[in-house]
Each structure stands twice: as C-alpha cells, then as structure tokens.
Design brief:
transmembrane, ABC transporter permease, transmembrane helix, membrane, globular
C-alpha cells in the first residue's frame, strides 16, 4: 500500500513545474555565495571553508527551508483542489501511508537538491582555484543537512496538510528561519527543527561537532520527526480534512 502511494506521488511530480525551482534555487544561492566570496576574498582566507560559509549561508539559511516549504505545499496542492481530500480519505489507503509517502517524496527531492548543491560547491571551488583539498567535513555537512531537512519537511508537511493556502506555509517557514537563527545564536538551537539545519550544515560555524553533539543532533531530529509524524497521522485518522 505504501509503495503504491509513493508511486502515485512520484507520478504527480514527473511532469510538474517544480523541477526548474529545484534547480534554480541552489544555482542562484551558489552564485550569490561565490560573488560574495570573490568580492571579499581578501578577508576570506580559509579556502574551501570560507567558500562554504558564503554559499551555505544563502542556501542553508534561506533558500533550502523555503524550498522545503514549497515542495510540501506542492505535494498537498492537488488534494486541496476541487475537494479531492474527500476522495483520498475514502480510498482504501491508511493515513500513515498518505503522510509517509508525501514525506518520502519530499525527502527524495531534497536529497537530489543536496547532491546538486554539493556539485555546484565543488565546481565553484575549482573555478575559483581554491587552495588545499576539499574539506572532509563536506560529506557530513551535506548529510546532516539532509537529515535536518527531512525533520523540517515533516513540520512543513503537517502545516500544508491543514492549510489550504499555498503561500501561508511558506511564509511560516520564513518566520521560523529567523526564530531558528535567534535560538542558534542563543546556544539553544537543538530544541528547534529549523536551527538543526544551521547546526547540521555548519552554516554559521564550521567547527566539527563533538561526539556528544552529534548524538544529540540525531536524537533531536528523530524525536521531532517521530512526534510531528505521529501527530499528523493521528489528525488525519481522527479529524475531517478541511476540503
């Protein structure tokens, strides 16, 4: 049942207009970061690490959370149109399958975006003739960023399932980003999903996470993911969707 739901969700994505956005935002954020690095290269002297601070700042703090919100709103868009929720909820498909299939599709899309961003970062570094070798932390930044992105996706998907508006969940995501930055600066970022993205991707600090911080990072992501998913599935089961 879950496999069929995932296949159905993927079919909706194959010919969607979302693909140009998935490509454009990482490209745009990388270009912005590279331009900022090039104009300030006299002060940014730490090679690949300095380049990462610039490209990941635009991408990880702003464009990626917005992209997640767009994807989550898009995968719920068809159900919100023409009262299609009535048909979905009367189909022989479990609420868990509906939520997990949508989350799987969004997670897959964000994984592809992370791969694209990594390639763009490497290409930019070689074009700019970065000294030294590519940081070994890059894989960790990208992977942890993806994990945090899935957690944020569960939150955004929960919002998009309840809210018919396409733009409102995206606006909430933007507000949450600024809250997340504030909590990160206050050294309590582990308690907020959007701050976890900042921590995981090393956006504002490239210092290597300690073993305890790494464990805490993954535990908090798991807790948020399971809690939000359970609440969303419970609501789908017990409450009528606002069609």
């Amino acid at each position: 049942m879950l496999k069929r739901c995932i296949q159905a969700e993927w079919m909706k994505m194959r010919h969607s207009y979302l693909w140009p956005i998935l490509i454009a935002l990482p490209v745009f954020s990388t270009l912005l970061g590279c331009a900022n690095y090039y104009m300030n290269r006299a002060a940014l002297t730490n090679g690949w690490y300095s380049l990462w601070t610039q490209v990941s700042l635009f991408y990880g703090e702003f464009f990626l959370p917005v992209l997640i919100a767009i994807c989550c709103a898009y995968v719920c868009r068809l159900e919100h149109m023409n009262k299609n929720w009535n048909m979905v909820m009367t189909a022989p498909v479990s609420a868990a399958s509906i939520f997990i299939s949508k989350l799987t599709i969004v997670g897959t899309l964000i994984f592809l975006v992370q791969i694209l961003f990594t390639v763009l970062y490497l290409v930019a570094g070689y074009v700019l003739s970065m000294p030294f070798a590519v940081p070994e932390e890059t894989v960790g930044w990208v992977f942890r960023g993806w994990i945090a992105a899935i957690t944020i996706s569960s939150v955004q998907l929960a919002l998009s399932l309840r809210i018919k508006s396409f733009a409102l969940p995206i606006g909430i995501s933007v507000c949450a980003v600024f809250i997340g930055i504030g909590l990160y600066v206050g050294n309590i970022g582990m308690i907020f999903p959007y701050s976890l993205l900042t921590i995981g991707m090393g956006v504002l600090s490239q210092e290597k996470l300690t073993s305890m911080q790494t464990i805490q990072f993954f535990v908090m992501n798991l807790v948020f993911l399971m809690l939000v998913s359970a609440l969303s599935i419970r609501r789908l089961k017990r409450n009528d969707v606002n069609a």
